[in-house]
Amino acid sequence: MTEPKITQLQPLPDDWQRALAVVAHPDDLEYGCSAAIAAWTDAGREVAYVLATRGEAGIDTLDPAVCGPLREREQRASAAAVGVTTVEFLDHRDGVIEYGLALRRDIAAAIRRHRPELVLTLNHRDTWGGVAWNTPDHVAVGRATLDAAADAGNRWIFPELAEQGLEPWNGVRRVAVAGSSSPTHAVDATPGLERAVRSLLEHRTYIEALTKQDPETYVRDFLTASTQGAAERFGGKPAVAFEVFSR
Ligand SMILES: [Zn+2]
């Protein structure tokens, strides 16, 4: 018997200057990606966030009218913890985001505004692996982001965007999907891990509603386990793993 060979993850290329992260909800980036983002902003790279919703349907005990503004504030603080100051909201409705032309158009417009070479998003697949079902919001936003990376470069798909002054941007070279069960690449999580903990901890209202555990213990345990999970395929180093689609 021979041990099954474990395929190693490749280092995510760093030949880029601007990244745009597009996700459905406040906390989607902090539950996994933000250690990588902290390392990138340290290195002088620009990263901006676009969120499809304000996460207003995320806390059972809070009315969406109260929850939305609160989670927006928490998201801005969590972005600042990893060096990100641009956070935009597309105002789709939390929990019922529809995959379709409106979403593709909004994300294509964001890509044209920010002109990134790297686009990040969260798992667009039906599951997190095995039988852990994903949510329809993540699937819709992930798929629409992969599509919009191409839409942004085509003048004729959403011609109204150019009429609004948003010229085509065909410079997205990769879309990196976090939380995928089929990762291909990774980023060393060690330098950014402490700020990633601070960043996730900024979602305090959400976390306190989610668990009875001490928030800092919960956050540290979660991020340590998730980055350690990728280590055996990344030379033993804790890592943030991505499934990368090149363009
Ligand atoms: Zn989410």
From TrEMBL:
Swiss-Prot/TrEMBL keywords: Zinc
GO terms classed as biological process: glycoside metabolic process
**Domain of life, source organism:** Bacteria
> Pfam families per the record?
PIG-L
Tell me one GO molecular function of this protein: hydrolase activity, acting on carbon-nitrogen (but not peptide) bonds, in linear amides
Q: Which InterPro entries does this UniProt record tie to the protein?
A: GlcNAc_PI_deacetylase-related (IPR003737), LmbE-like_dom_sf (IPR024078)
Q: Does the keyword Chaperone apply?
A: no
Quote the protein name from its UniProt record.
GlcNAc-PI de-N-acetylase
Please give the organism. Answer: Streptomyces cellostaticus
Identify the taxonomic lineage of the organism of origin: Bacteria, Bacillati, Actinomycetota, Actinomycetes, Kitasatosporales
